[in-house]
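Tokens as discussed.
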């Protein structure tokens, strides 16, 4: 009986369900031409396309089968061939991948080339694929174990397959949040900061001192807005009466502890943060009491403690600066002193008047 070779999947807009692909989707490019893809990358894409991510250490999804290559030419890429058959509705029942870098047969195979030549002759001359199918039994198991070993110690893939994996507690422990009482501490209410985000930034949070560039990158990456950080943004701090220098009240040594005046200028306790340019909706999130402002305060407290003050400026981009009017936008209502402006013409520059303090005494 003639063995019917599976045909390449025809990915068209008429497909429905998991087989339907967007134009220029990575899986579509993989099915059309697998040569630019690395083998493990291709297997991962196909597993996600089938919505069956494999757990670490598990074999690939049942739809994937690995075959031996019969080519005696030097492999041009890690994948020699990729074939699939289309089931009813367009979803493939089986996807066959032929890796070019590992196997029992082929130019890179472990068996002598005579075996490859004999199997190749039986397929082309006698139309007999039994010998190759026999070797494919061992090929599939071997490559499955190889891919499982590749996935096992890659933390992003382990988290992708099992979100409740054992690596997140380890990352939280590095950030100082590994105890059960500290889990999900920043999640209740608006402005929640998920533990997954804290685990992602564990490398920065675990440091004894978080540098200014590192803190700037952390905030910009988490909130998805431009952030400018200026260190040593000084301000006047009031001096308590008991610490002020007064004639006739105790010894005052000039150049050591003598202090003239009721306030002191300090530059080492204050940082200026400028967020933006922001849209009007983004600015509303970072106004005091908004979810962005709450999350910002939580992250700053977690990263640097309570020893630093932060002066937060919200930079509203010029095209979103609107004149205040009664009955304005219900989604972003006018708030006096924050986003209200008296304008006779469009603003030519971004506006940074909206500002507030975090951790200020």
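Sequence:
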């Amino acid at each position: 009986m003639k063995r019917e070779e599976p045909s390449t999947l025809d990915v068209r807009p008429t497909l429905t369900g998991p087989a339907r692909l967007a134009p220029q989707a990575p899986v579509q490019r993989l099915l059309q031409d697998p040569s630019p893809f690395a083998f493990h990358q291709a297997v991962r894409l196909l597993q996600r396309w089938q919505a069956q991510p494999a757990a670490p250490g598990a074999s690939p999804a049942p739809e994937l089968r690995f075959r031996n290559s019969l080519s005696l030419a030097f492999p041009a890429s890690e994948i020699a061939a990729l074939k699939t058959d289309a089931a009813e509705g367009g979803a493939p029942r089986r996807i066959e991948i032929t890796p070019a870098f590992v196997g029992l047969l082929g130019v890179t195979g472990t068996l002598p080339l005579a075996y490859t030549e004999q199997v190749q002759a039986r397929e082309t001359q006698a139309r007999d694929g039994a010998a190759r199918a026999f070797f494919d039994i061992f090929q599939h198991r071997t490559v499955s174990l190889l891919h499982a070993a590749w996935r096992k110690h890659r933390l992003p893939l382990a988290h992708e397959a099992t979100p409740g994996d054992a690596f997140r507690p380890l990352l939280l422990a590095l950030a100082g949040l590994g105890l059960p009482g500290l889990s999900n501490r920043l999640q209740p209410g608006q402005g929640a900061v998920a533990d997954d985000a804290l685990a992602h930034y564990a490398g920065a949070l675990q440091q004894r001192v978080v540098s200014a560039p590192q803190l700037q990158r952390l905030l910009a990456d988490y909130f998805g807005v431009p952030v400018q950080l200026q260190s040593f943004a000084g301000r006047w701090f009031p001096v308590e009466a008991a610490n002020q220098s007064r004639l006739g009240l105790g010894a005052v040594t000039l150049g050591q502890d003598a202090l003239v005046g009721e306030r002191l200028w300090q530059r080492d306790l204050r940082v200026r943060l400028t967020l933006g340019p922001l849209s009007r909706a983004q600015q509303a999130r970072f106004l005091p009491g908004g979810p962005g402002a709450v999350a910002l305060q939580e992250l700053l407290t977690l990263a640097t403690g309570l020893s630093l003050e932060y002066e937060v400026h919200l930079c509203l981009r010029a095209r979103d600066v609107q004149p205040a009017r009664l009955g304005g936008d219900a989604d972003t209502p006018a708030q006096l002193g924050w986003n209200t402006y008296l304008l006779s013409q469009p603003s030519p520059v971004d506006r940074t008047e909206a500002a507030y303090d975090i951790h200020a005494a």
